[in-house]
């Protein structure tokens, strides 16, 4: 009996071992099956960080203010006020370049290294912007250029991380030439002596000469000048039919052009109509024909209507100025690109999404040209006129210049 009992006990023990082993193998198989599955993909919930470079001080302070106001409005418009895209909050870091290239580099480096931004935006000065372009390439971050216009930004100094919502000098030039150039017309130019001015004149010359005009004199002045007497006298001595002026900044030459009675000497003035503060100094130029990048009642579309109404609400009844819609367009472009990538802010992914991308702005539809990432856009041929109740000459629309008409040469 004891032998039988021992035998039965041994059999029960074997059964228990087999059950235990089977359970372990089952668990192991289950774990292996779970481990073989692809990991569940979770969306990145980290914030999107945008670093904005602008002239908050220096000669282009007004332009920086306009751009920043437009950018903030653009983020709200494009995200319906949530400041969020694809489940990721948007954080904005603003740095003052002081309108100095060396400071712009320092501030951009801070944004990239300390704030670890996903995008750079800016800046007010072409000189500042050109100094920062190599950093976008070095850190492999998208830089949306606004409002700097030098052709070289999307030309000789272009890299694949640069996208520009601002118009460039060539687009300005085509618009300016369309307003005045014709066969046999003699034109002199006045511009600041740095990349913005020289690129602008070069582009204007190309466009004007194609239309049959002759450039009889090019005059370049110190960008910080307050006395333009000698510059203007040299222009008068060449006896052109037109003086085409390219200028940016508060130290404009308009008062001295009036004081030296340039128009009374038979020389017509033409230029791009500037921001409202500069328009207030252009009373002597009423009747002038030229072009403008933007004036708040020229574009007729829903985005611009929203901008004008919202700007008045937020800024004590003030209307958006020359570079406000550019700041807004830069913000809209970033948000639309992130929608296309579902929140992926890696540069290579964004580049694929942004090349050829069209998006609606206060100036109508813009499109990033794939070859050089320049935004093709509408400009406006205008005439300065006096308007009741407005204390400055008003740009009145002669005709819209379409994105196809103002498309600049590819220079990269």
Automatic annotation (TrEMBL):
The keyword Kinase is annotated on this UniProt entry: no
InterPro entries named in the record: BCAA_transport, Leu-bd, Peripla_BP_I
Superkingdom of the source species: Bacteria
Signal peptide: 1-23
UniProt record similarity statement: Belongs to the leucine-binding protein family.
Keyword terms of this UniProt record: Signal
Keyword Signal: yes
SUPFAM superfamilies: Periplasmic binding protein-like I
Domain (Leucine-binding protein) ranges: 47-386
Database matches in Pfam families: Peripla_BP_6
Organism for this UniProt entry: Cytobacillus dafuensis (Bacillus dafuensis)
Name of the protein: ABC transporter substrate-binding protein
């Amino acid at each position: 009996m004891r032998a039988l009992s021992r035998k039965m006990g041994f059999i029960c023990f074997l059964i228990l071992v087999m059950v235990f082993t089977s359970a372990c193998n089952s668990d192991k198989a289950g774990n292996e099956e779970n481990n073989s599955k692809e990991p569940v993909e979770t969306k990145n919930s980290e914030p999107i960080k945008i670093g904005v470079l602008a002239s908050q001080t220096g000669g282009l302070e007004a332009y920086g203010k306009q751009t920043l106001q437009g950018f903030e409005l653009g983020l709200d418009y494009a995200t319906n006020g949530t400041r969020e895209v694809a489940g990721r909050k948007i954080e904005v870091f603003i740095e003052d370049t002081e309108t100095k290239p060396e400071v712009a580099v320092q501030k951009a480096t801070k944004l990239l290294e300390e704030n670890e931004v996903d995008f750079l935006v800016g800046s007010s000065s072409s000189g500042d912007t050109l100094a920062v372009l190599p950093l976008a390439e070095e850190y492999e971050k998208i830089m949306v250029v606004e409002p700097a216009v030098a052709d070289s930004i999307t030309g000789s100094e272009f890299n694949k991380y640069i996208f520009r919502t601002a118009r460039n000098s060539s687009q300005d030039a085509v618009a300016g030439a369309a307003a005045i150039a014709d066969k046999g017309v003699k034109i002199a130019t006045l511009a600041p002596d740095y990349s913005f001015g020289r690129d602008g004149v070069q582009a204007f010359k190309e466009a004007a000469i194609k239309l049959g005009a002759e450039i009889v004199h090019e005059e370049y002045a110190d960008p910080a000048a307050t006395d333009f007497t000698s510059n203007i006298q040299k222009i008068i001595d060449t006896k052109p039919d037109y003086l085409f002026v390219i200028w940016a900044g508060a130290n404009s030459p308009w008062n001295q052009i009036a004081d030296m009675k340039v128009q009374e000497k038979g020389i017509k003035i033409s230029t791009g109509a500037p921001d409202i503060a500069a328009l207030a100094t252009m009373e002597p130029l009423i009747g002038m024909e030229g072009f403008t990048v933007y004036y708040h009642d020229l574009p007729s579309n829903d985005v611009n209507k929203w901008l004008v109404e919202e700007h008045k609400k937020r800024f004590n009844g003030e209307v958006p100025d020359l570079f406000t819609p550019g700041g807004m367009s830069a913000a809209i472009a970033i948000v639309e690109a992130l929608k296309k990538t579902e929140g992926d802010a890696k540069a290579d992914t964004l580049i694929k999404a942004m090349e050829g991308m069209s998006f609606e702005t206060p100036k109508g539809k813009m499109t990033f040209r794939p070859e050089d990432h320049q935004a093709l856009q509408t400009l406006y041929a205008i005439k300065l006129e006096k308007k009741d109740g407005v204390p400055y000459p008003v740009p009145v629309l002669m005709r819209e210049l379409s994105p196809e008409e103002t498309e600049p040469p590819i220079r990269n």
